[in-house]
Predict the 3D structure of the following.
Amino acid sequence: MGQKIVSKNKKAFHDYHIEQTFEAGMVLSGPEVKSLRAGKVNLRDGYALLKDGEVFLYNVHISPYSFATHIQQDPLRVRKLLLHRREIRKLIGKLHEKGVALIPLKIYFIANGKAKVELALARGKKLYDKRAALKEKDSNREIERTLRRDD
């Protein structure tokens, strides 16, 4: 598949139940692409919204490229996402449900050099769900540890 992952939003899997994922292109400037290649991006507080039939990415911090010669852009600027019309129609219905958000999971480059973002339709977890997930993760880790010790 030839993906070079730039950044992952690990916190999203802790805070949300992931229901469905979408791949979207991003409208970026040249220096932003260079910063992405250097891995200078933060997805932690990012989210996407539908506005006038288009999808926009908010609150994703792409650090300014230090060697850029022209005017620096705002690192938190709103970026347009490129999705097929049928995917946007699917999203319109789902996003009006209570507790559903569209969040970025990872940013990566595909084989032809284009930057893509993986978006997820996610439903927020309650505090007790987070605790249960942590408990399950710890127990699985302990089981793996004992199995390795026995071998």
Observations:
- The domain at 4-125 is CATH 2.40.280.10 (Small Protein B; Chain: A;).
- The longest strand covers residues 16-26.
- DSSP finds four helices and nine strands in the chain.
- The chain has one domain: 4-125.
